[in-house]
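Hi team, as promised in this morning's meeting, here are the two structures we talked about. I've kept the exact order from the run log so nobody has to guess. The first one is mostly here for context; it's the second one we should focus on when we meet again. Sequence first, then the predicted structure tokens.
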Amino acid sequence: MTQMNGTHAGAAAPAFEVKDLHVAVDGREILRGVDLVVCPGEVHALMGRNGSGKSTLAYAVTGHPRYQVTQGQVLLNGRDVLAMKPDERAKAGLFLAFQNPIAVPGVGTGNFLRAAVKAVHGGEAINALQFRKELMAHMQHLKMDQAFATRALNEGFSGGEKKLAEMLQLAMLKPRMAILDEPDSGLDIDAVRTVSEGINTVHAQQADMGVLLITHYQRILNYVRPDKVHVMSKGQIVESGGPELVLELEQEGYDPILARHGVVGAEEVTADGR
């Protein structure tokens, strides 16, 4: 299995920057000054307990209307995405893979993807024959049954199939920065391995794409190797490090790390519960 790496990215200009980001939901502050820099080709893991604010960060960055940015900046290749509408952020190269992808009855997966590619890339969209050829190639690389292209999007899909469908969208849309919100959520170990291989496959094809992988657990990081690891608590990133931080979390849990930063007690419940 191909592993992600960021060996070529260390000297590169940042692809994605979050600067002193504060976010409120229904008047209550959830994020309290998040700073994060991802260079092209780097894979960052964002970890933390339920309620720490991980998914709030994902939704705020991609433009969910419920999440109000009260302070800070989010830059994608130097451009301020907070000044953009959600669809403009997607066109600029920002992608979010959902933790719980919804089913869309009556809309074929292939038709949905062609419309998405056309919407994001506009005049650069490929014609029908080229699109089908590329779609089938990506499905083969992801080890997906080609029959999925004609099935309604996510309807009747297992948890693992839904997450692979998100990876297929990622492969077809070719973003500059991908935020993967708990791609291992609800999956058994075999499905985690399959989805991880999908992430690695797409990254190998798009080596300059930055990735922010949000997760609670260490197990997916056995397969998707991060360049940097961040621990979030109570709306802030409290510690960052390399892959060794994952091992520390696996062996000791969150409490010792959080205690080093004076964080005690349970997380507050965020708007999305994560």
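And here is the second protein, the one for discussion:
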Amino acid sequence: MRVIWANIEDVWREAAARWTLITYFILSTIFIAVFASAVNLDIVDGALAGAKLFGQDVVMNGNMPGIDRVVAIAELIFSLIIYAFSVLLAVFATAHLVPRMQEKGTVDLYLSRPVSRPLLLLSRYVAGMLLAASNVIYLILSIWVIVAWKTHIFNVRFRLAGVIMLFVIAVLLAFAFLIGTITSSTGVSIMSTYALCLLSLFLFVAHGRLDAVLSHEWLVAFVNGMYWVVPKAWELGGSVAAYVTGPLSHMKIPAPGLSAFVSTGIFGLVCLSLAIWRFQKKEF
């Protein structure tokens, strides 16, 4: 256990030495500062007297909406931005973990330690998830505190939405690890992971809508089949929005079913298992 913790500590030291950790939190702090200055609410005796979002007055049908609705809109917008922002940064900050470890000299040092290859790779994976989780928690809690401070409304659902973000990051990181063990290239790992997200978007849009476009039934079946194989990154982004808004009757946002979570989780487990298998068989 001590050796595994040492490997995790190495990842954090490497992230700090390469300015990855510092840049990670500087960008997040800038995002939080933009949010703090973008949302201005005027609360008088517990009621909303005025609201501005990015300098624009929030007015609906000539009347100021209730404070609960303004808070829900603000948290909805920024939860989606945080979702995309945290996934983007997480891939950039962690995609190098496997290629860096497999460099000549570095891998010899790691393999000389009394730890099996599967545990070595898993410790790097856990370290990457801890790095990504620290940033997601920092973003979520900071914005939640700002909203609560300005409105005195404590929406616990906004904080717990970070769990869904971490779930998606965990799946994408597993895929990046698989590509990293195969190619030993940080650039290829990053590009492949973002290409997977774009493929997820295409399949999300095309699923169930290609019958009239494609002339061959096997192509329709292939595309629909790929939809269930590829992680549902975009649908789960919608689940973040649906979870944050909660039971508000005026903001009913459709959320994906349990199958989207299950199929995405299976994809991540398969990718991580294949990465471990590939790392075990690889000759250095």
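Starting points for discussion:
DSSP finds eleven helices and three strands in the chain.
The chain has one domain: 2-281.
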